[in-house]
């Protein structure tokens, strides 16, 4: 049994992760500030299962409060740092806020670990660090020095900060580069959830670009499995930072996404095509060679099956709102 601090615990991925950790017998401390980016009620529902399980403690607080975080840690606590301000387009409107939470917040987590003597860290990074200049499929050893949004820059900057402090503190870090995660509890601002909600309410869809831009969609249960593997890997890892891609390994175009959602919902949407948005990359595509060899990671949920599971959850979720 391990003792694990999960930051961003009320969020989409972290809430699933906490349940998986508890199911295998770990003790989990969940930390979340309930950032108002989307309604608190969504996040409270995300916590419902974990809060009923033995071994779970939830703390409402901010990752930038280094004293608070340090008090939650002991030398043998493992940290899974998933708290962040998310979203490419919103980061263009609030670059300072994104740098504060995603970079300075990560620095605060590392400092709290230093104070407590904790050394094992799994960090939730992003495929956005690769930008538009990295050849596909993306390999972890790509320079990743040309991000195209403040969000992407903040995630890459956080990785670089950890690379700098890891040898100074003896940190063993798995930087997990998540590729567009979807599934039950997905954030309401993300494309799959947003499109499904609009289709269910009879609204049209506003789509940006020409529909050929593609994302390497990854189902939540696969991301959780990869994150568990990353957490466990830190027990045998050398001091330093290793980056790992966690992706579905099959890019899906925007047109294909809308068609699959349409099939699963049984609804043909009205579509308005608009110019490409700043900050959006053309393609994300994960090379899983390293993650497969080192973490044993292999995505298992096919895109169509994942969409069907998401639609089932989405219908039930919104039916329960009435």
Shape, please?
Answer: globular
The parts where pLDDT drops under 50 for at least 5 residues are none
Q: Give the proportion of residues in helices.
A: 40-55%
CATH homologous superfamily placement of the domain at 3-178 and 220-246 and 286-299: NAD(P)-binding Rossmann-like Domain
CATH topology of the domain at 3-178 and 220-246 and 286-299: Rossmann fold
CATH class bucket of the domain at 3-178 and 220-246 and 286-299: Alpha Beta
Distance between the termini: 41 Å
Rounded to the nearest angstrom, the radius of gyration is 19 Å
Q: Quick one: how many beta strands?
A: 13
The CATH architecture assignment of the domain at 3-178 and 220-246 and 286-299 turns out to be 3-Layer(aba) Sandwich
Strand order of the largest sheet: 3-2-1-4-5-6-11
| Tally of helical segments | 12
- H/E element order: EHEHHEHEHHEHEEHEEEHEEHEHH
Strand content: 15-25%
Mean pLDDT: 97
What this model shows, in words?
- This protein has helices spanning 12-23, 40-46, 48-51, 66-71, 88-93, 95-116, 150-169, 191-200, 220-233, 254-265, 289-295, 303-319, and strands spanning 3-7, 27-32, 56-60, 78-81, 120-126, 172-178, 181-182, 205-208, 214-215, 218-219, 240-246, 252-253, 271-274.
- The N and C termini lie far apart (41 Å).
- Helix 1 (12-23) links the parallel strand 1 and strand 2 (27-32).
- The longest helix is centred in the first third of the chain and has 22 residues, at 95-116.
- The chain is an alpha/beta fold and 322 residues long.
- The protein is globular.
- The strands form 4 sheets. It has a 7-stranded parallel β-sheet, sandwiched between helices.
- The chain contains 12 helices and 13 strands.
